[in-house]
Amino acid sequence: MTVQRVDGPATAQQEFTIEELSRQVGMSPRNIRAHQARRILAPPVRRGRTVVYQEQHLRRLETILSLQRQGFNLTAIEAMFGVRAGQPRTDGLAPLMQRLAAESPALVDALTRHGVVAWKENGTVQMVRPRALRAALELHRSGLPARQTVQVLVEVLDRIGRPVEELLRATGDRILSLPGDPARPRAVTWDEWSDSAELLAQGLIDLLSEAFRVVAENRGPTSVVDIVGRRSGQSTVMLVETAAVMDLG
């Protein structure tokens, strides 16, 4: 591999073209550019009419690959790097998670297994999917202990894992069976197949996430009313009338 080196002081560092960086890290140039578009990789440095990548780009790509090998998808990695658009604030979550780590490390380990949080090298807890934690903690407003609502989140994640995987496979098979755009050339190299698979995976995640939200919002109020009615013995009709004021947005 040809490596460009900047002449100058001792702080000079290696520089790469995108093809050299691609070979060095084992990632296609197209994926490297896609990571730039996601803002999990900084833009290259411009040298007149050319652009070069530096050692920090190489280290970031190695970190991304390491996280992917640990099971984190690009959506989670965006959240870990703090670049996701519309990502909720994590104010108050970090202290709570540190207390949970001290009081119930098994619970935090379970969240780590699902990619909701991650352990840092210094032993602290990093938020990966704060939206999921925030949703669990919103139940705290109904008078439930935070630790128990987080435990419920873990139980839900455990329970839906297999059905969601089966639905992903079925939906993926269905999409791949659709007739393609005849004007779009088919992937012929491994890199092209890899890029297509990444786009398909993200599309499936977005589709099923929104579909689940639609079903939960449509059926959630009635389901909760039924549960409360059975436990309290009150009239379901009366509870439905009370719940009718809910605004799901």
From TrEMBL:
SUPFAM superfamilies: Putative DNA-binding domain (SSF46955). GO terms for molecular function: DNA binding; DNA-binding transcription factor activity. PROSITE patterns: HTH_MERR_2. The keyword ATP-binding does not apply. Residues 15-83 form the HTH merR-type domain. Keywords: DNA-binding, Repressor, Transcription, Transcription regulation. The keyword Transcription applies. This is MerR-like DNA binding protein.
